[in-house]
Every structure is written in C-alpha cells, then in structure tokens.
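Section: Multi-chain targets

For targets with more than one molecule, the full set of components is provided together so that the structure can be written out for the assembly as a whole rather than chain by chain. Components appear in the order listed by the source. The example entry contains two components.
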Amino acid sequence: MTGLNGVRAGFAGLGFMGKHMACNLLKAGVDLHIYNRTRSKAAELLDEGTGVADTPRALAEAIGGGVIIICVTDTPAVEAIIRGGEDGAGLVDGLSPGALVIDMGTTRVESTRELAQLVAAKGAGFVDAPVSGGEVGARDATLTIMAGGSDADVGRAAPYFDILGRAHTHIGSVGAGQVAKCANQTIVALTLTAVAEALVFARKGGADPAKVREALLGGFAGSRILELHGQRMIDETFEPGGRARTQLKDLEQTLEYARSIGVHLPLLERDTELWREMVARGWGDLDQSGIMVLARALSEEGGGEP
Amino acid sequence: MTGLNGVRAGFAGLGFMGKHMACNLLKAGVDLHIYNRTRSKAAELLDEGTGVADTPRALAEAIGGGVIIICVTDTPAVEAIIRGGEDGAGLVDGLSPGALVIDMGTTRVESTRELAQLVAAKGAGFVDAPVSGGEVGARDATLTIMAGGSDADVGRAAPYFDILGRAHTHIGSVGAGQVAKCANQTIVALTLTAVAEALVFARKGGADPAKVREALLGGFAGSRILELHGQRMIDETFEPGGRARTQLKDLEQTLEYARSIGVHLPLLERDTELWREMVARGWGDLDQSGIMVLARALSEEGGGEP
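Its structure, encoded as tokens over all components, is:
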C-alpha cells in the first residue's frame, strides 16, 4: 500500500510516457491535478472532478506544499514549464515552500542542477528521476527509475515511484539521476547497434538470425535488448516504442555533458555518428530497433572488400 | 540421462576450457581418450585406465567410428591437429569412416568449411560447435553451444552437448556455428566497451557506478555483461576469465570474414581498434572486463574539451 489515496499531487506532461504514468497515479487513488500544454489532452484523459490547470503556475498553486511530477519531451520543455516566461506563468512563480518537484524526463545534467537551485530558492525540493523502460514500462508500471536528490526528498518521492515503476534506485545528489540515465542510454544505444550489426552479419554469413538470437540469449551476449529489440529486428516491426530521434537526442546530450567535464568516450562518439546518420536518412521516427535498417544499409556500402 | 556411460570418445586440447570439459565428460562416465600437445597435462588430469594418445592420428585410431571433440586455442592449433604435418600424424590420417569430429573452439569460418571437407573425404562427419560462457561455463557445464552441421551429425553430438553445456542451438550447416560465435563476440565485445564507457562516465559525472549498475540492471540496459563484468569493473578484479587478447583475436577473425563476404560493420570496426589499443598497451592478459582500464585512460586523453 502506498498510502496516497486521496493525496493531492500535480502532474505536468501527457505525452506518450506521461499519459500512462498519470493514469497509473489516478488508478492508485492519487487526487491528481494536471497541466498539459495542449489542454484537450488533459480533458480526454481525466475523469470529472480531477483538476486541470491552465498554466504551470496554476498547477503549483493548486498543489501548494505537495508533490508535482513533470514528464515532458526534452530540456527546453521542462525549462519552459519550471521557469515559464515573462508572463510569470511558470511553475516557480506559483511554488509554495515545502513543495517537491520531481522531473521524470530525460533532462540535461547542467539544466537539472540549475532548475533545482531555482526551485530551492522558493523553499521547495527537487528530485531528478528519469526512467528506463519505454512506453510499455510506463503503461505496465514496470519502469526503472534513477533518482537524484537528498535522502529526504527521494524518500518523499518513493511512494509515487512505487506506483509508477518496478524499482527505483537513489543514485546520489541532484543530477545523479540524469547522469545514470546518460549511462543507461549509452549502454542501450551501443547494445542496439551491436545486436543490429551482429544479426546483419549473421544473415550475410549464411546463419539464420532467429536461431542466432535464440542461441545467444543464454550466454554472455544475453541482454534485454537482444531479447526484445532483437526480436523486432528479426520481425522488422519498427513501430515506436522509443524513437530513434529521441535516442539520438539523449546521446547528443550525454556527449555534450561528457565534453563539458573533459570526458572522451570514443565508442559512444562513433555510435552517435551512426544514430545521426539514421535520422539523416529519414528513419528518425522508427523504433530504436530500426538501427538494424541502417546497419544493413551500411553493411553494403564502403569499407567492405569483396 | 545421456546414455554415454562407457561409450568411448576422443578429446583433444586440455587448455583452460578443455580441461574442465574433459573432466565433465569423464564424470558423466564417458570412456575418454585424450590427446594434448603437452602430454603431461593429460597425465595430470586422467585417472588410470583412461587412454592418452601420442598424436592426433593415434587418437583417431583409438576412437575408430566414434566421436572426437577438439577444443584448442585458435585456428592454427585446430588446423595442426586435424591436418597434421608431413609426418602423417594428423587426425585425418587416422580417421575411420563413420567417425564424427566436433570442433568446440572458435575457428575461422572459411577454415571450418575446409576442414569439414577434409574430414568428409574420409567418410567422417563434422560439427562446428563453438561455445559462450567462458571458463566458469566450462567448469559448471553451463556453456551455450552454437552448432553447425547436418541434422544427423548435430543429433549425434547432442548427448555430449547435454553434458558440457546448458543449451545448444543448431544454427545451420557447417560453419553456421562459427558465424553465430562471431555474432556472439561482436555483441559481447561491444557490450563490454559500452558498460565500460558508461561506468567511467558515471563516475566522472559524480554518480556512484555501483548504484548505476544496480539501477540499470532492471531496465533496457540490463545484460549478463552488466551483471557479471560490470561488477568486475566496479571491483577492479581483472583476473581472466576470458582474456582481452582472445577477444581481440575473435574480433579480428569476425572482421576478416565479414570483409571476405563484403560486409562492413562500422561500430565493430571502431571497437576492434579499441581492443587492439588495449592489447598494445600491455593489458591483453587482463580479463575482458579490463576494457574499463582502457576506457578510463582514453576518457582522459584527446577528444575531451574541458
């Protein structure tokens, strides 16, 4: 039991992840007040009686000293919600002391730390809590949540995490959740490309990729990516899931932060070029597993000596 | 039950994998005749009454129309055993019609197909059955086995695979097992480097790598490599296991075969440069997870803009 039945909380962002997460909070009995840039989306989702706020500021005012969860597409979107503009309609403009802001999107590490300071200036707490698990994880509440913040703040967020995901890990102070998410995306992207190149190679070498996937799952090559995305590559079903252009955005953000702290990541740099090439070829809206389409195309171009 | 109790079979190669595999066959009651280049190794291992052959030819003669398993370091070693030299002491020189040769090492795809033809000319069958799982898998009989050969030959090999591993998959015709092993090594090497770069990045970004590993295991970044080798990277325990130089050999072999069939694998090519660099820096005898040492060194050199 989470003990959140009837507790009022705020939720901003009803995108392909957020809509499922808001639903799961509502189902768990949270008295959810919603803000979404496109108001009609909020209206669709909500039962009568749940509050819909017109601005992030109005959302903050409705929640008072409670918890506000944000799940939007990218750093500019979360900046827009928290900072607002000259109209003074941002979340910070309405934030009460004692409130807790939880950003569950994938946001730049530096921006995360700046936004946390802005929120702290209002006497409120901040937790960065990006997730892994995609739309399926959001829908089935099996997300993996990587949290950065103080012990007290992450402890206060925990009952919400219990509703939204399978597990959460307190990685460290504010920003550490986003650093972990960067590490996650590094491994996910590289493993996707690895599986893609391996399956393309296997087929060209005369082996059945489905048999190869099956054989490899039990050994050191076994991974969640080989299991799920490897199957999608074999079936060539690339409806997103997680889009390639989102993966590229996350990788660019990771490399940008890595460079800012003087860290060189040679394999990730090469892989990011490949994801950039995938998007440049018009495949950015495919599922991430569509990297196989690029790997297949590249396998036949340049570099190969017949 | 395998039904091999008292059945005579041959085994060539008592290296760090083969010694465990031979032991497991002996424990299962197989009447094993052994050949090893260094005879004393065979003597150490065996109980009285088990046959030790002086040459591969003598091993083949002792086994007659039975099954002979080979598990040696590399392609030249398996070529030496099967072809022998001018002295006529090779396995083919003593091979009886109806025998079955099973190569469980990681051997070049083209050589595999040539050796299978040589063996077929003697009226014997050939199965390539490389493994994944390392020394621990060999010891605990939890290897994953990727088999290439005819249905009949792989069926005949299956009871031995049941003793030696957790699972075997019949990938396709002769050589397909080695193609699958190449695909396996591609994924393993790239995942190792991915985990290494991610953990190095996480530490430099102020997150605890142990927490990051823990958080990521439950999501899309989860893999056997993150679980096992990720822990070794965190503990910095690099006793081999699987050596980096063996990984490099397997990757060079994979790229060589890929080029020979006109297949370009851009990410694997970059990764192979990194493994080559690792060996060049004198870290070739570290466990594969030692790629973290290279990733850490490279993270501080070139490319990074402070």
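Chain B has a mean pLDDT of 93.
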